[in-house]
Design brief:
two-stranded parallel ribbon; single chain; alpha+beta; 2 strands; 2 helices; 28% strand; 38% helix; 53 residues
């Protein structure tokens, strides 16, 4: 039985980290998730943000 994986991405930190460190603002989340999962079975990717006050 292969391992399964679910990925949770903190949208604000992820976005600002990409922008600041790599200089990009968008990403293909499916390709990114598959890269992170490796040989494991990718079940789902959750991308979440909190509203600003």
């Amino acid at each position: 039985m292969s391992e399964r994986i679910v990925i949770f991405i903190d949208g604000s930190n992820f976005y600002h980290g990409l922008k600041r460190n790599i200089g990009i603002k968008d990403i293909n989340f499916l390709k990114f998730g598959k890269k992170l999962a490796g040989e494991r079975k990718l079940i789902k990717i959750y991308y979440y943000n909190a509203p600003l006050d």
